[in-house]
């Protein structure tokens, strides 16, 4: 049974133009020149492989694509620099060791990447756009003959959209140019260029469904909810674990419901010196120690070590003389950042009267915006620094009576 | 669609005409001997135990060595990739790479004084300084005179043999037209690429980086290599254009080849900038004094001008100038940028080597930040350059200037940029 379709009259194939086949590349190139010289504009040559020198025969002008790509590249560079300048130097200034908020070398890699990204994307999409792609159907694909364009056929196709196109005279031109065969192309793009109905349904459905996550996100961002949040991966968010030495009611590993045994009374684990409060915390009898621990003798070599460590770890902020004028502090001062807390002058009376244990404690745990150095400097070196600090403070506030008799005259 | 274009070669002059070759040789030897002689006199007059002379000579020597090494890489690369387009220019590159022998001879004024205990150039050769300096003492197992000279021998033997291998194969093919010789070169090329990479990296470290032996940069070999390629492509373009202007290889090396050489010149110049910045940024970012001092000395006084000249003159301006297809296909514009980049390559080597000079001279002889430029640099450059030109003419005399028997010669003549 042949079912009559409801295709209306205006969907009949139109005249799409003419397709001419040529014997070889030389014949194609010669014919192209004739078509070009006849003033046609909407036509193209097709061959299975690139033919050098065909572009001028077809009359293709040099592409303007490079200018677009160059412009996009420059735009990428500018966008990258502006973005980094605005985020780092304007919108969210954050002083890192007093370094400048905006410094060109740090921004070059991003600028390089965005230059390449902008240029590459522009090259890709502008090539597609200027070639009229993507396109679902083309009248050429109706021709059986044209299939050979990918193996051994050389073709010229003149579109019926060309203002100079006349079915008879154009055919005559192509035949005169040496075409082996000339045939009409049927332009049925109005019929065939329609998306298949199932695909249309899928695309429309996907488009509509795509709004659901957006809606959910928009709602979540504007409303509060009393419900607990959704755990996508619950075993990452709430892991079963025990706190050492704490009792858990549901746990039956040990008789006292603890997760771990306590150390045997009177033992110290290897490397565990926490019991020596003086050495590891600077505390003696619940107060800051006023002396160095017995392991750290107050000798010249301890002070030398302390000076060396001080100049490495402390001097960048506090300055080598300890007046709070290190290089980092100077740079931050120059930036004038309101968020910057200047490093303390170590010769303030408040600090001069601090016991060694408290200096040790400050180095270990940090204070205000000074970071903790406990992880970075071994305890013995921290004590050496504290000892050197004592010497440094004395050096800036020594009474005349502390200077040896024979050198006092030089100071007066 | 390769049509037979061998007639292009048959109609063209494919050998260096003897009068022309003779003239080049005469000029080269004349200028070379005059330059080297006046450089030695000027060096003696400085009364600094040839210290200034050593630096000027090293820069001139490294300049022509880098062209040679760039050529050696190019020849190897063409065989690794089985390139067809480049066949017509490969013989010229083979000739340039064969100057490795000349460069070995010309290295004697640097190496002989070193062997005799002179440490004008390399402070690590000074026993007193090494004893007093913990870092130099630590590096002494590598940086010592004996091992240095042994390494130099290895480099030059490797480069000379590599260049000979490709050049001899190619020359034998001129007569026999035996495609098996091409296969032989291709099989050898990939392993030799490794030899090349290692020797060039260490040579850059030894001859240039060790001038300031406290400083180190792991990318330095690549940096020097990038400079080699830039200077080589510039030289090859100029050589081809000059030969064409003398009626040699006219029609054989044509605009399509220059276009491609221009692309490579542009690409490797960008590569140079990329590597130069990579080296700078890591050191700048880490901000460790043992690395930053090298850049710090190069930002003081006149050196900041040289540094800015490199950023703009070696990188940004030629980048914009060479990016267009138009610039690469107009031989006059291309020649302009080739000369420009050769000049910048000299500035680059000057920037790498010359700042170390101040510390070698007596205190106050050269104020910090002063550029040690003078007639000595001109004399050394002209001297080494003249010898290079003359020996290149000697290498190429009575030989075809294209690989006559290469099976891809016709493909190369047909080459067109899509």
Q: What are the defining features of this structure?
A:
heterodimer; A: 412 residues; alpha+beta; Cytochrome Bc1 Complex, Chain D, domain 2; two-stranded antiparallel sheet; 16 helices; elongated; disordered N terminus; B: 418 residues; mainly alpha; 74% helix; globular
Question: Summary?
Answer:
The complex is a heterodimer of chains A (412) and B (418). By secondary structure, chain A is α+β, with helices and mostly antiparallel strands.
Protein described:
The complex is a heterodimer of chains A (412) and B (418). Chain A is α+β, with helices and mostly antiparallel strands and 412 residues long. Chain A folds into two domains: 194 residues, no CATH class; 121 residues, Cytochrome c-like domain (Cytochrome Bc1 Complex, Chain D, domain 2), CATH 1.10.760.10. Chain A contains 16 helices and six strands. In chain A, strands 2-3-1-4 form a four-stranded antiparallel beta sheet. In chain A, strands 5-6 form a two-stranded antiparallel ribbon. In chain A, β5 and β6 form a beta hairpin. In chain A, α3 runs antiparallel to α4 and α11 runs parallel beside α12. The longest helix of chain B is centred in the middle third of the chain and has 32 residues. In chain B, α5 runs antiparallel to α9. Chain B starts with 5 loop residues before the first helix and ends in a 5-residue tail after the last helix. Chain B has 418 residues and is mainly α. Chain B has one domain. Chains A and B meet through α4 of A and α12 of B.
Main sheet strand line-up of chain A: 2-3-1-4
Number of domains of chain A: 2
Number of helices of chain A: 16
Tell me about the largest β-sheet of chain A: 4 strands, antiparallel
Helix content of chain A: 40-55%
Overall domain count of chain B = 1
Q: Which percent range describes the beta-strand content of chain A? A: 5-15%
- Assembly form of the protein: heterodimer
Structural Rg of chain B? 22 Å
Low-pLDDT stretches of chain A: 1-9
Helix content estimate of chain B = over 70%
SSE order of chain A in H/E notation?
A: EHEHHHEHEHHHHHEEHHHHHH
**Secondary-structure element series of chain B:** HHHHHHHHHHHHHHHHHHH
Distance N terminus to C terminus of chain A?
126 Å
- Biggest interface, CB < 8 A: A-B, 12 and 11 residues
- Give the radius of gyration of chain A: 42 Å
Count of helical segments of chain B? 19
Question: How large a portion of the residues of chain B is in β-strands, by DSSP E?
Answer: under 5%
Alpha-beta content class of chain B: mainly alpha
